Amino acid sequence: MPPHFRALAIDAFRHCRNGLHFFFPPKWKKIYIHDGYHLGLLLHTLSIDHVIDVGAAAGQFALSIRRNGYRNLITSIEPLQSSWYKLCHRARRDRQWRVFDRSALGSSTKLMPIKISANNDSSSFLPVTNESMLAAPKSEQIQEELTQVFTLDDVFDSITSCGDTILLKLDVQGYEDQVIIGASSSIKRIKAALVEVSIVPMYEGQSLYIDIIRMMSDFGFEPYAFLKGYCNENTGQQLQLDVLFLNQNLA
């Protein structure tokens, strides 16, 4: 049984009554079906055996794909010191989950101050916009932390093996274009990329979704799937979404 079907079957068993009732996910589970389950299905369908998790935070994304059937290699990269320590703690018993030295990815190698937000999730090299503050007041940036920045091209050979079928995941808070610029060589060896893109500016000077789609297209990647989004809970306006791009040269 494919891993993503196994995960769904286990969830169905947990929610059935007396072992006789067909499983219908409750309303809150709908995001599981079209987000976590959807991603698990995509990883299986594309035969991904190495996920490079850039902007790993405390490992939430890695844990999510584990819950949805992915059992292959994960390499996590995270710049924030507090999140990095939690990430290391969570990965310590998983032999297929590696944590890279605390660092960020960008367009060149350098030391940079990262602006840390009150909620940690909105921490970025870029200042947050008013739109971001209205949607999430705790995105306010309250301190800075010096961070080593590498390019993906710098580290790619040290974290991958020849023959890896790679998905690159980017959740880098407005710095997507800079990471892509710094991956101009290695991106040719990546089969798929899951990129969080913004529909409205959440960070000052960031590239928006249409710019990222064009950049990825220039490298031979086209949108393959659209996953969960982030909305302003007060207005319902869509602010961000995750786009899975497929490398047409490796499809």
The CATH C-level class name = Alpha Beta
Strand-residue fraction?
25-35%
Element string (H = helix, E = strand): HHEHEHEEEHEHEHEHEE
Averaged pLDDT: 89
Radius of gyration: 18 Å
Separation of the first and last Cα atoms: 24 Å
Estimate percent helicity: 25-40%
If strands are numbered along the chain, what order do they take across the biggest sheet? 3-2-1-7-8-10-9
Number of individual domains: 1
The tally of strands reads: 10
What do we call the CATH homologous superfamily? Vaccinia Virus protein VP39
Morphology: globular
CATH topology: Rossmann fold
* Number of distinct helices: 8
Q: Could you describe the largest sheet, including whether it forms a barrel?
A: 7 strands, mixed
What does this structure look like?
This protein has a single domain (46-247), classed as Vaccinia Virus protein VP39 (Rossmann fold, 3-Layer(aba) Sandwich). The protein has 8 helices and 10 strands. Helix 1 packs antiparallel against helix 2. The strands form 2 sheets. Strands 3-2-1-7-8-10-9 form a 7-stranded mixed beta sheet. It has 251 residues and is of the alpha/beta class. Mean pLDDT is 89; it is low at 12-34.
Topology:
Blueprint lengths: L2 H13 L14 H16 L4 E5 L5 H8 L5 E5 L3 H11 L5 E3 L4 E2 L4 E8 L12 H6 L5 E10 L1 H8 L6 E5 L5 H6 L10 E7 L10 H10 L2 E11 L6 E10 L4
Parallel strand pairs: 1-2, 1-7, 2-3, 4-6, 7-8
Antiparallel strand pairs: 5-6, 8-10, 9-10
Please sum up the structure shown:
This protein is α/β, with parallel strands linked by helices and 251 residues long. The chain contains 8 helices and 10 strands. Helix 1 packs antiparallel against helix 2.
